[in-house]
Here is the input.
Amino acid sequence: MFSSSRSAVRAAAVAGVLCLSAAAWAQTPSANSDAEARFNAGLTHLRDGRPQLALEEFQRAIKQDPKNPYFHKGLGLAYATLKRFDDATSAFRKALELNPYYTDVRNDLGMALVLAGKRQEGKAEFLAAFNDPTNPTPEISSRNLGQAYFEEKNYAEAANWFRSSLNRNKAYPDAYLGLADALVALGRPEDASTTLETGASEVPTSTAIQLALGEAYYRAGRFSDARARLEDARRKNPTGADARRAAELLKHFPK
Here is the structure.
């Protein structure tokens, strides 16, 4: 009943890439106003869960302005959402070819390669992004490396990379969650709970951390603490997935 979901972790990784990319597009200049309008329409479709329509808009934008790396990144994310990972890889490589300093794309490229089964190539892209001094989000690159090693059951290396992520950004929830999972896999559940407690203190708005901490307390037999954390997760965002999961778990507590 109270077990972590590895598929959910991977889904969160892909979602994290999408959210990061959308934020990175706050300034996306194009000499062609119609192409930019197509691009913005594609972003809206992507955010609202319509990847096929997003793909078509990004393709139209690229046809009008083929040398805009942001448009190719958008195309890659649409392909990735549609699970066309080889096409996504090609689009991300084109974005990097057009702008070698667009370091953020390496995270997207690495994710597409990993999901395509080309894990070593994907990890190499994450590492290149992490080591690039111009990378604005090294914590995401190192977290992605941690997740890749976790999926390969190299839990010690995964923990190292999750810690590296937190060293770069103590307010990054995914790194706390990843490190806690790695510590549990290493047979250190108490350290995992301590990690999540730190995360809850550093990022009190994260319902995902509250949910994970509630589950950790439940497994440790700390039922009153577990209930408090799960109820907090449910209150913070009543319509979110974490809140729904917390509400479902709370049904199994004794009255």
Notes: Residues 93 and 100 are 10 Å apart (CA to CA). The two ends are 18 Å apart (CA to CA). The longest helix spans residues 6-24.
